[in-house]
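Inputs:
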Amino acid sequence: MSSGIGGSTAETELAALKPWPDPAPAITAAERGDRLRHAQALMAELGAEALIIGAGASLRYFTGVGWNATERLVAMVLPREGGPTMICPRFELGSLEASLGVDAPIALWEEHENPYALVAGVLEAAGAKTLAVDPALPFFAFHGLRKAAPGVAPLDGAPIVDGCRMIKSPAELALMSQAKAMTLEVHRRAARMLAAGITTTAVRRFIDQAHRALGADDGSSFCAVQFGLASAYPHGLPGEQKLARGDIVLIDTGCRVQGYNSDITRTYVFGEPSAEQRRVWDVEKRAQAAAFAAVKPGVPCEEIDAVARRVLESAGFGPDYALPGLPHRTGHGIGLSIHEAPYLVRGDKTPLQPGMCFSNEPMIVLPDAFGVRLEDHFYVTETGAAWFTEPQPSLDEPFRAKN
Ligand code: ZN
Ligand code: ZN
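Outputs:
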């Protein structure tokens, strides 16, 4: 048996977990002010006189309000000059004020009123004839806006939203470092509580409880536990599996700290690995390392994907998305959304810049057999890249022994 797998229980591992000892500081009002000014500078470049952001990760980014989008409009309208205005249902005012992290007047609407008329009023007061629209705004909201402000030309707001969000500040890097370190610790303990016959459901429950014990915002933000054949499907198979000796164990999970995401995958074997499992794991390790080594400011995102694929192809996998091989992109941006622009994928020519954050997960799938995915995240530095979490040392030592 590899070291650090099995031999303990869920109770023992949970009992050892305490809230994270030195939590990263929250995003300050001053930093949010910088974000709004950055957005206004990008609005000027784009020719947008105003920007609308609906509830979701981008609203949290600009205002601190971490609400999910529903049929009721909650939004920020930001003119090119001056401060933002919030749009909110009147009955939600108290909740909004409790989480609002910027200075902004709040325009309120009652249940029977048209919130888009309020947006039109803000645009008119600002003299805005062009409006950059949050790409995540639902179509019904876009449609409502068009009807309420027919004289305002909509623009794709992605260059503004992504232009701000894709470069992370030191405070954001610290929050993500904490989230990722917490998830790696959860992985380490999850490996120890495994036992023959344990179900994927029991492991997922443990992982959620462990994330909570460490102080994650809301337990696991997602969790995939795949044993044996199920590991050959990047996002698993429906139903429950039981762990058997010789099974590949593939666990992909994450949590949030003040909205910032972790997302880490570990793959190891419960029992003695076969020669084939070892061979594939070693190729995966080399592909992940090569992708990391190729990161440098100015390199296009798609090149990192190409580098990982070249390692896989030289070992007889692929080409391209063909199986056995890597059926998806090498990685995704991460921040307040678990998947966000830019992407490590063919066709994404965005040049890497210091402060960008990505997953590095060039999974290998062997159809009808098993899959191996090693996923860690890195951020781009002035000279290359830095890992948030140390990649899996080896198949036999999935987690570095703690001293
Ligand atoms: Zn993942
Ligand atoms: Zn991922």
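Remarks. The chain has a mean pLDDT of 97. The chain is about 35% helix and 20% strand.
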